[in-house]
Amino acid sequence: MLNPWLLSGALLLVLAGCTVVAATTGSLARRAGAQNFATLLICLVLLLLAQGFARPSYSDAALVLALLGPAGTLVYARLLGPELPATTHRGRFTDLAAVLLTFAVVLPLCVAAGPGRAAAKLLVTGILLLVGNLVGSSALRRPARGVVVGG
């Protein structure tokens, strides 16, 4: 039976698929930014699937991905910094979309979970997603210059 949580997760999964395609094609800056946004979308899909299938362990996977995803983006920004163009306007739309999507998913999930440990875990995951995505996006906008890799 398809419930609203699963339907929302399926719609976000389609958007995540489009973002993964963007992460594999185009310029280096576009690929790195799309990877950062794809991490956020996949975390949100895992949270929606956890609620839709009543499997709390899926939210644990989302929490781990929320911790590790921005670290990967920061590694990309550090290693590929000299090759990334420094622009201040790139990523503003995805930053706004990340904030709105995170609130649109996490807050209803917290209401559905009710007060308790599950809601606290959802809030922590949401905060990690927001902070991690914004920090990663900021690092991609102002990449490190003069980084010597391997030496």
Q: Secondary-structure map with pairings?
A:
Blueprint: H1 4-24, H2 28-52, H3 57-79, H4 92-113, H5 117-141
Helix pairs in contact: 1-2, 2-3, 2-4, 2-5, 3-5, 4-5
What does this protein look like?
This protein has five helices and no strands. The protein is mainly alpha-helical and 151 residues long. Helix 2 runs antiparallel to helix 5 (117-141) and helix 4 (92-113) packs antiparallel against helix 5 (117-141). The mean pLDDT is 83.
Note the beta-strand portion: under 5%
Largest sheet at a glance?
A: none
The overall number of domains is: 1
H/I helix tally: 5
Averaging pLDDT over every residue, what do you get?
83
Task: Evaluate the radius of gyration.
Answer: 16 Å
Key attributes of the depicted protein:
151 residues; mainly alpha
What is this entry, summarized?
The chain has five helices and no strands.
